[in-house]
Amino acid sequence: MKTSTNRNLFLSITLAVLVPFAVAASSLTIPNVFTPNTPIKAAEVNENFAAVQSALNSKLDAAAASVSSGTRLKIVGHRTADGLALPAANGPLFDSSLGVYCSPRTASDGLERCLPNSSTFATYSSDPGCTQPIYQLSKLNLVPGLPVPTSAYVVDFTIVNGTFVQVISGLQPYTGTVYSNEGGGFFGDLDGGSATFDAGFPGCVPVTPSVPVYSKGAVVPASAFVQLNATAL
Questions:
Q1: Which of 37, 148, 185, 222 has its CA 20 to 30 A from that of 21?
Q2: What is the DSSP-derived secondary structure letter of residue 38?
Q3: Three-state DSSP class for 129?
Q4: CA distance 143 to 135
Q5: Which residues 6+ apart lie within 8 Å of 211 measured at CB?
Q6: pTM to 2 decimals?
Q7: SS3 of 42, please?
């Protein structure tokens, strides 16, 4: 009798500990209620534990579902054959509408948006003084299975109302004469168009690039990029 009483007490304590967590997780109904000094059937205890387990699983499923890709922004990461889905640690998102990888940053309108990651670099110029940069596309070494970008942007930095923000511009093919600084050097923010040129020998000379080059296009309105709202998940 003492063993049975101890067993009943243990089961009662166990359920008392688990049930509140499950109640917070989901709507939970305990199918069997036990009263003091009455026999407890193993099947009824197992049924109660099954109800608790189901409620806890629903909470875990809900938590997992709260972090998922949207219709436009996609989380990139890894999957395994046994069903594991793991987002890349501090990795970028993929804007499936614009076809570009993006990360949360402050846009020119002061709002946090998923702004395109820099995918260009300037090694050539469009003028004989080598002060007006033109751009090449960065080569991306993507892991097979990840989305392939279909567009690129120029990322500039500026200060608006005391806040450090990013301004995004498009690209357009450049077909004019291309110049390269052969022996001199660029100084300053080349991507921002504020570079100066150190006229070293032989200096800024016409060249024929082996890859396509682009000039900076119009500034893309901040509203073109997805706004992000900080929240507790």
A1: 37
A2: S
A3: coil
A4: 25
A5: 136, 137
A6: 0.63
A7: helix
